[in-house]
Amino acid sequence: MNNNLVSEIRNLDPKPLWNKFADLNAVPRPSKKEDRVIQFMKDFGNSLGLETFEDDIRNVIIRKPATAGMENRKPIVLQGHLDMVHQKNNDTNFDFDTQGIDMYVDGDWVRAKGTTLGADNGLGVAAIMAVLESTDIAHPAIEALFTIDEETGMTGALNLKGGILQGEILLNLDTEEDNEIDIGCAGGIDVTATRSYNREYTPVLFHGYKITAKGLNGGHSGMQIHEGLGNANKIMNRMLFETFDEFDLRVSTIDGGSLRNAIPRESVAVIALPVTKETEFFDAIQKTINAIKAEFQTTEPKLEISIDKTETPEKVMEIAAQKQLIAALYAAVNGVYRMSADMKDLVETSNNIARVLVKDGDILIGCLTRSSVESSKFDLANALKAAFSLGGFEVKFSGSYPGWTPNVNSEILKVLVGIYKKQNGSEPHVVACHAGLECGILGTNYPGMDMISFGPTILGAHSPDERASISSSRKFWKFFLEILESIPAKN
After folding, report:
1. pLDDT at 6 over 90
2. Where does the Peptidase M20 dimerisation domain lie (predicted)?
3. Is 56 a catalytic residue?
């Protein structure tokens, strides 16, 4: 990163928060490749002379005693996750495994150059680090819990054993709207459909074409699933569905989307068309493209769909498998499945068709199904299983994790609401979110722990448009410090 840009970030207010964020963002930290950030966090704790250790799954725990006069307050757990979602624009040359995030200031926002920023959950982790390092912030006894692999499996939270933590209150710093206090969240399950297919030589007098759908916003597959954003995999499949039968279109490869928790922004398909039907095909598919763009003109104004001549593929899918694939993807639910009947404007259950890969005789379709109601989560997962099974797929469920049931009588909730009203002159939004916060999972082994989640405003998480509000970080920091000072006394 440019040294001048680093200096600009480090001089933002509050400096303790942004300095720790700059330190953290210099360390590569992909999900499931957290060795470097784990060592970084252990070195940090040890450098402060604090008790620092890994648990069996490699979560990092750092303990700091209460400051003078706070010894009689309830001990707390400050929790955030070390990994970040790695997404970049196609024209961005960046290696997440070796490079630190290239940040810059844009008005009231901190952004990254063509990649995700890592504010999810880097700002929460940085806030915890700043408190651990401080000598003048009042706080009770702290256990800082830095979990691993939150973004692609909740592995750290799922494997944290009971009995390790001693805190009575958990503050999760992973909420993305500074006027919200989260008291509940959705659980999730990975739905994966796979099958093989026979490949055939491309018929004679067929030409090759590459269809590309790109320019979509993408975003968080939980928090933004209700926004009417385009899903590149569904858009691509719709174009194929509406043209393949009439024009004898043959599919060679499809490559769309990436991570399960990111709404797919791009998809590319290589197809073959009979020379005799090219003109009619282009007329028909242009009508479909125009309809799709009209439907998404408000939410996806940058959507681009192109069809370019390419080398004719040597082989294509057998026609029966092609029909089953396209029909199954068309039938599979994507987006909001059910809204909550108990909390206004809360998505209860949804699915993201995140990944479609058709190549060399194998098909993989990856989905992330979310719900705040466990039975509804499996209802939708089974609906997907039925659709894909009819297409000849083997369907597996994995990585299931529970939601977090709201506790409206929470003691720490009352503390946060009171502080927020005093500082801001308005009521906070007490909500449950449609994302996979770790609180519900951690609560399975720590059922008596009082949990709450809050954080600064972050927009566009899980996409290269991710950005963190500078003014909101100041608001969050002030809120956080008074919460630490106001933790209730031990019973």
Report:
1. no
2. 212-292
3. no
